[in-house]
C-alpha cells in the first residue's frame, strides 16, 4: 500500500484521482520541515524520514505559493504564513503590488527503500525551464542538496544526503502552475486556492477534476502515476 504522507486531506483528495482505487491511503505523519529555500530537499528529506517511520512505500508532497514580486515569498514558508497571517492578509500584501504574478509549485518525493537505477527520468525539462523563466526564486535548476546531481536530464534519482543516516534513494516529481494573486473568490479547494487565479478562475472556483487538470499537484501526480505504473 502506498502511503500519501500529509496532514492535509485536501491533498489526498486530489491524489486519489491519479491512483487506482484502494492503492493509496493517507499517512498523517508530520515530518521535520527543514529550513530550505527549495521544496525538493524538504520533500526528499521528509520522504526518507516517513519511510523509516512507515516501513512501506511513501509519497511526500511539499507545495508552496511563490509570489514573483515578493521574490518567491512565501514559497517554502507557505504553511507558516497561512497559519500566522492567513490568506486574507497575503491578499492585502499582494494587492498593493503592481505585478501580482505568482506560481504554485509541488514536489512529490517517493521512497520505498529501494533504488531506481534503470527507471526513465520522470521530471521533464519543460517544467523546469518554465519554472526558471517564471520564478525569480529559482536559479535555473534547483540545486538543493537533495536534488543534487541534476544534469541536462533534469532530476535524477536522489541518493546523497550527508546529514541523515544512510543513502535511501528518493525519486522526485515536480509540477508548476502560473497564475496571479486576486481577492478571495470561491469556496472549493484548500489553503491559498481562493486567492490564486489561473485562466480567469480561482482554484477555489474549480472542482477537483478541473484543478487537477492544470495544477502544480496534478502535473506532479500525473508524472508520478505514469512512472509508478511501469516502474
Ligand atoms: P503537509 O505538509 O502535512 O502535507 P501542508 O498543508 O502544510 O500539509 P505544505 O507544507 O505542502 O502542506 O503546504 C504549504 C502551504 O501551501 C499550506 O498552507 C497549504 O495549505 C498550501 N497549499 C499547498 N498546496 C496547495 C494547493 O494546491 N492549493 C492551495 N494551497 C496549497
Ligand atoms: Na507542510
TrEMBL record:
Residues 142-162 have a biased composition (Acidic residues). InterPro entries: ITPase-like_fam, RdgB/HAM1. It holds the Pfam family Ham1p_like. Keywords: Hydrolase. One of its GO terms (cellular component) is cytoplasm. SUPFAM superfamilies: ITPase-like. Residues 121-169 are annotated as: Disordered. GO terms for molecular function: nucleoside triphosphate diphosphatase activity. The keyword Hydrolase applies. It comes from the Archaea. GO terms for biological process: nucleoside triphosphate catabolic process. PANTHER family: INOSINE TRIPHOSPHATE PYROPHOSPHATASE (PTHR11067:SF9), INOSINE TRIPHOSPHATE PYROPHOSPHATASE/HAM1 PROTEIN (PTHR11067). Belongs to the HAM1 NTPase family. This is Non-canonical purine NTP pyrophosphatase. It comes from Halorubrum halodurans. The lineage of its organism: Archaea, Methanobacteriati, Methanobacteriota, Stenosarchaea group, Halobacteria.
Amino acid at each position: 500500500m502506498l502511503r500519501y504522507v500529509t496532514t492535509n486531506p485536501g491533498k489526498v483528495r486530489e491524489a486519489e484521482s491519479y491512483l487506482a482505487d484502494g492503492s493509496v491511503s493517507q499517512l498523517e505523519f508530520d515530518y521535520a520541515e527543514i529550513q530550505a529555500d527549495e521544496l525538493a530537499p524538504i520533500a526528499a528529506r521528509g520522504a526518507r524520514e516517513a519511510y523509516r517511520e512507515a516501513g512501506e512505500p511513501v509519497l511526500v508532497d511539499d507545495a508552496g505559493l511563490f509570489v514573483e514580486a515578493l521574490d518567491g515569498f512565501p514559497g517554502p514558508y507557505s504553511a507558516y504564513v497561512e497559519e500566522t497571517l492567513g490568506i486574507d492578509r497575503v491578499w492585502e500584501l499582494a494587492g498593493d503590488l503592481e505585478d501580482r504574478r505568482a506560481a504554485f509549485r509541488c514536489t512529490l518525493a517517493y521512497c520505498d527503500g529501494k533504488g531506481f537505477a534503470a527507471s526513465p527520468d520522470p521530471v521533464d525539462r519543460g517544467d523546469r525551464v518554465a519554472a526558471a523563466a517564471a520564478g525569480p526564486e529559482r536559479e535555473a535548476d534547483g540545486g538543493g542538496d537533495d536534488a543534487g546531481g541534476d544534469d541536462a536530464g533534469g532530476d535524477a534519482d536522489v541518493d546523497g544526503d550527508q546529514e541523515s543516516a544512510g543513502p535511501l534513494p528518493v525519486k522526485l516529481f515536480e509540477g508548476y502552475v502560473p497564475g496571479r494573486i486576486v481577492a478571495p473568490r470561491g469556496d472549493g479547494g484548500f489553503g491559498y486556492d481562493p486567492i490564486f487565479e489561473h485562466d480567469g478562475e480561482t482554484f477555489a472556483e474549480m472542482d477537483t477534476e478541473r484543478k487537477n487538470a492544470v495544477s502544480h499537484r496534478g502535473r506532479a501526480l500525473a508524472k508520478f502515476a505514469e512512472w509508478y505504473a511501469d516502474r
